[in-house]
Amino acid sequence: MSCPALTKRADTSGLTNAQDWISACQAAATWPDSNPVGFFSAYLETAMIGDGATFATNEGCLSMPNVRGDLERFENVGVRYLDRDGEVHEETRRGLTAGTFQHEVDHLDGILFVDRMTDMSSLSTWEEFERHGKADFVARIEALVARVGS
User: How many domains does the chain have?
Assistant: First the structure.
C-alpha cells in the first residue's frame, strides 16, 4: 500500500489519522520538547525498528472506549519522520514513548492493541483496571522508566 504525499496539517496530537487516507498517511505525535513535532514518514515499513527487548504494558484506546489490556511493546524504537517543513529526522524513542509510537503506527496498519494481545484474560474496564491491575502496572512502568527512561 502506498501513501499519498504528506500534508503539513497538524490538527491532532498523539492520535493517528488512519481514517484520512485521502490527504495523507500520517501520525501526529506530541513530545515534551515540542507540540506537535511533526509527521511520520509515509514509508511505514522503515518508520520504526524495535531493538528486540520488550516490556509488558497495559493499553487502552479511544477506538475501544473503556477497554484495557496487557500486551508487549518494544522498549526502544528507531523512528524516522518528516517534520512540518519536510525535513527527515531519525531518533530513538524509549519506554512509554516507544510504546505510544508503536500503538499509533499500528492504527495506520489497521491494528488495534487487542490484536497484539496474546492473553485476552487481561481485558478489563477502567474501573476493573483501577481495582485489580493498576498497582502491578505502576510497578512495572516505574521499573521500565528507571531502566530505559521514558
Answer: 1
d(CA 58, CA 95): 13
Catalytic residues: 104
pLDDT tens digits along 76-124:
988 887 777 778 888 888 999 999 989 988 998 899 999 999 999 999 9
Per-residue pLDDT tens digits for 23-74: 234 444 444 444 444 444 433 333 566 778 999 999 999 999 999 999 999 9
Identify whether 10 is part of a domain. Answer: no
Helix (H) or strand (E) holding 148: helix 134-148
Nearest to 133 by CA among 57, 64, 72, 73: 57
d(CA 141, CA 59): 12
Instruction: Count CB neighbours of 27 within 10 A.
Output: 25
Q: Which domain holds residue 55?
A: 28-148
Closest alpha carbon to 37 in 100, 102, 89 = 89
